[in-house]
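W.,

You were right to be curious about this one. When I first looked at the sequence I had no strong expectations either way, so I just let the prediction run and decided to look at it fresh. Below is the sequence, 157 residues in total, followed by the output.
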Amino acid sequence: MFDIGFPELVLISIVALLVIGPERLPETIRTIMLWLGRIRRTFTNIKNELEQEIGADEIRRQLHNETIMKDIKDTKESIAGALKEADQSMSEFRHSVNESIASATPKPSTIPSTMPSTMPSDTETAAPPAISDTSTDTSTDSIKDSANDDEPKRSTS
């Protein structure tokens, strides 16, 4: 509204001090501030009454709701676009995987008709015979013999 800076305020205060005088200046400032406060309150009351009569609060709420609904719609459209892109990329990925699987598996026409004879038959690949333990443990026998040697031999008469 008014663009009053610090130099303008200093100029106004110097003029007021010279015109009014130092004794009456504080009382004059108080009176001016009182009138400015009353004018502001009056304008604020008039503004509030006009807003209530025309329903400005309802209009503000409606505009706010419309902007929220527009934002929600934009977000919904962006999410739908992202889902469509993700679905398309997943479909392309499935297609590429299926193509790579199809190219990796041999086709029946490429398998040779004669199989090589180097493959062993089932009878040739029999399991080796189990290892049997035919040796006897002589270490315990020698311990028993040494225990019997320590005992004195008794004669039976």
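Here's what jumped out at me. The chain has four helices and no strands. And, maybe more interesting for your project: The helical segments are 6-20, 25-54, 56-104, 139-150.

Coffee later to discuss?

I.
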